[in-house]
Amino acid sequence: MKSLFERGPTLLSRLVMALICAATLMFLDHRLNTMQPVRSFLSTVVAPVQYLAVLPQEVLDRLVYLSTTRTTLREENVQLKQQLQELEMAVQRLNFLENENDRLRQLLGSDVRQESRRMAAEVVSVATDPFSHQVVINKGSTNGVYDGQPVLDNRGIVGQIISVGRGTARVLLISDQSHAISLRAERNDIRVLARGTGDLQQLELMFIPHSSELEVGDKLMSSGLGGVFPEGYPVAEIISIDRDERLQYARVLARPFAQLDRIRTVLLLWPASATETPVYDEVKSPALEKESTNVD
Amino acid sequence: MWIKSGLLPLLTSYVVALVLMVMPMPAFMEAWRPDWLSLVIIYWVMALPHRVGMGSVLVLGLAADILMGSVFGIYATALLIMAYPAIRHFQRIRNYSFTQQALVVAILVMVKRVIVYELEHVLNDAVFQLAYLYPVISSAIAWPWVYLILRKYRRHYLVR
What we know:
The complex is a heterodimer of chains A (296) and B (160). Chain A has helices at 11-30, 36-45, 47-67, 70-108, 284-295; strands at 117-126, 134-137, 150-152, 157-164, 169-173, 180-185, 191-196, 203-208, 219-222, 234-242, 250-256, 265-270. By secondary structure, chain A is α+β, with helices and mostly antiparallel strands. In chain A, a hairpin with a 7-residue loop joins strand 10 (234-242) and strand 11. Chain A folds into 3 domains: 14-60, no CATH class; 61-113; 117-283, Rod shape-determining protein MreC, domain 1 (Thrombin, subunit H). Chain B is mostly helical and 160 residues long. In chain B, 73% of the residues lie in helices and 0% in strands. In chain B, helix 1 (7-22) packs antiparallel against helix 3 (36-47), helix 4 runs antiparallel to helix 5 and helix 5 runs antiparallel to helix 7 (98-124). Chains A and B meet through helix 1, helix 2, helix 3 and strand 1 of A and helix 1, helix 4, helix 5 and helix 7 of B.
C-alpha cells in the first residue's frame, strides 16, 4: 500500500544519487573508454527489442510478397533476366580490364589489387537522434564483423562499423556529425575531406581553397587513405560550391550516392588486408531454396 | 512480497516504448516521431509515483542509451531531470485538464531534449538543428491518447 508519508531517502536525494550514477557512467564511457565490453554485452541483451522493431515491417513485406500475382512476378522475372544479361556483359568487360590492370601493375612493380569479400546484411533498427546517425544491422561478431569495417549499399559507401555485438553491429553513417571520410574527385584527382553535417542528404567538404578546380557535379570516390575504406568506391556528388571570398575556405556541399534515409540492405566488405574473415550462415542457402520451392 | 501485482504489464509497456523509439519509419515522419519513452515515463511516474521512481527511470535511460548508441548516461541524465518535476508535482498534474497536461508534457519533453543536446554538444560537438525539437509538438499532441490508453491498460491489468 502507498503511505501518506514518504519512507527512505527523500526524492531529491534519490535524484542526486541516480544522477551521480549516470554521470559516473558517462565519465567512464567517454573519458576512459572502459565501457566497450559492457556495451557489446548489453547490445546483445537489447537485440530482441531491435528485432521487435522491424517485425511489423517484415510482416508487411511478407504480405506484399504473398499478394503479388503471377503476372507481376513473371514480368519482374523477365525484367530481372534482362538486367542480369546486361550486367553479365558489363562484368565480362570488367574481368578483361581487371586482368589487364593486374598485368600492367605487375609490369610497373606495384602490388596487384586483391579481391575483397562481401556479405549482405539487413538493417534492423535506426537511431533517430539527429546528433548520431547510426543504424543497427543483423550481423555481428559471429559472422566475423569487426570494428572499423566499411559498409556499402548498391550505390556507394554508407559508413563504418563502430561497435559489434554477438548478432548485431552498429554502423556509423557518413552523414554523422562526428564522421569524416577522405575522398578523391574522379575527374581530376583532387583530394578532399568530407564531413557529415547531421543531414542525411549532405556532406560538407572541408578546407577547400577558393581557387580549387572542383565543379558542381563532380563525382567523389573514396581515396583509400586513412585505411578504413578501400579505394575507388563512389561516395558523393558535389551539389553546390559557394566561393564567398569573405570566408576562409569555399563552402562545398555534396550529396551521398547511398540512400541513407531508406537503407534496408547493406553490404559488409572485408578488404584483402583485413585479419578477420567472414563467416557465412550455413542455414541461409537451404532456407532460400526452400522458399523458392514453396513459390513453385 | 517482492513481485507486486502487474509487474509484467508494466515491463511490457516499457519494452513497447523502447521498440517505438527505434522503429524504422518513413523519412518524412522521422523528424516528427513523438518521444514515446518520455511519454510513457511521465505517465507512470504520475500514476504510480510510489512504485516507478528514479531507479526505474535510470535503468530505462541506460537502455535508451544503448539502443541509440549514445554515450552511456546521456539519456539517463536527461530522463532523470525530466522525471523529477513530474514526480514532485504528480498530484497537481493529475488534476489538470488535457490541454494543460499536454502543455506540461511539452515543457518536460523539451527540457529532456535540450539536456540531451547540451550533453551531446559538450561531449561530441553536436550542432543544433531546429528539427530536433519538432517531437516536442508531436509528443504534446500524442499525450492525451497515450494517457487514455495507458490508464485503460493500467486499470485492466491492475497495475498499482
